[in-house]
TrEMBL record:
Protein name: GNAT family N-acetyltransferase
PROSITE patterns: GNAT
UniProt keyword Acyltransferase, yes or no: yes
Organism domain of life: Bacteria
Entry-linked Pfam families: Acetyltransf_1
Organism annotation: Billgrantia aerodenitrificans
UniProt keyword Transferase present: yes
Alphabetically ordered keywords of this record: Acyltransferase, Transferase
Record-linked InterPro entries: Acyl_CoA_acyltransferase, GNAT_dom, N-term/lysine_N-AcTrnsfr
PANTHER family with a match to the protein in the record: N-ALPHA-ACETYLTRANSFERASE, N-ALPHA-ACETYLTRANSFERASE 50
Domain N-acetyltransferase per the UniProt entry, residue ranges: 1-138
Length: 138
């Protein structure tokens, strides 16, 4: 897994989403935090990162794993990459005794919301610009 390739994918997606992917913090700082503190699973071909998921399984008392960022390159969507990446989070969370996985998604990102719904996530809270979604570990 190349941190440079993941960084490139994040920057491209931030541009595609007109700066709305990561808000409230400098993008560079956010990327640095993910690369140094989150657990990362990526799907790469050669030097290109086609998708990745950044997550945390660091609060066992909550029983909840948390997905911080989940991106699949637009040209690579509908190829099953997202499902494979999510299955890695499931395995890790289950192995460590976590019972559920949560994430936040921009409420205007209907494509992602639809995918998460099909993957078993349900909305458990609403915020000004986002939904918190949750599902049991499978």
């Amino acid at each position: 897994m190349s941190h440079q390739a993941i960084t490139k994918l994040i920057v491209e997606e931030q541009t595609r989403q007109a700066g709305k992917l990561v808000t409230g913090v400098e993008l560079e700082q956010y990327i640095d935090k993910l690369l140094t503190q989150a657990e990362l699973v990526s799907h790469c071909e050669g030097q290109y990162c086609l998708g990745f998921i950044a997550f945390y399984c660091n609060r066992p008392s909550t029983g909840c794993a948390y997905i911080s960022l989940f991106i699949v390159a637009p040209a690579c969507r509908e190829r099953g990459i997202a499902g494979v990446l999510l299955s890695h989070v499931d395995v890790t969370a289950k192995t460590r005794g976590f019972k559920k996985i949560e994430l936040e998604v921009n409420r205007n990102n209907s494509r992602a919301i639809h995918w998460y719904d099909k993957a078993g996530f349900t909305v458990v809270a609403e915020h000004e610009n986002a939904y918190r979604m949750s599902r049991p570990v499978t």
